[in-house]
Design the sequence.
């Protein structure tokens, strides 16, 4: 169970990361991207970020590659925006959460 401080830092990182992602100029990081979950280690040395796209898993995988290339820039921006002892190293993973949820919603509407 994460501590309150870790949970608060994770939420701050999520907020700032979503703002930074909107401002990136990489063409791979476009479309409707969402941070599905964010796992911050207890010591704050690394952070796993799960990204999902409304356009599907392929768009999420392209966005993850773009975000991985920009991880140094993202780490510097997070460090300058938040006052943390350690700025975490970011690991990005593609997730199919939004597209899967939209597919389930469509199937439920078809049943009715």
Sequence:
């Amino acid at each position: 169970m994460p501590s309150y401080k870790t949970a608060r830092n994770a939420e701050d990182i999520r907020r700032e990361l979503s703002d930074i992602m909107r401002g990136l100029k990489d063409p791979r990081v476009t479309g409707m991207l969402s941070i599905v979950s964010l796992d911050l280690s207890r010591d704050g040395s690394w952070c796993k970020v799960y990204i999902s796209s409304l356009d599907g898993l392929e768009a999420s995988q392209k966005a993850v590659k773009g975000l991985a290339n920009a991880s140094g820039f993202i780490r510097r921006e997070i460090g300058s925006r938040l006052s943390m002892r350690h700025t975490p190293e970011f690991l990005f993973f593609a997730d199919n959460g939004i597209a899967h949820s939209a597919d389930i919603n469509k199937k439920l509407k078809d049943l009715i």
In short: Residues 4-111 form a domain with the GMP Synthetase; Chain A, domain 3 fold (CATH 3.30.300.20). The longest strand covers residues 33-40. The chain has one domain: 4-111. The chain has four helices and three strands.
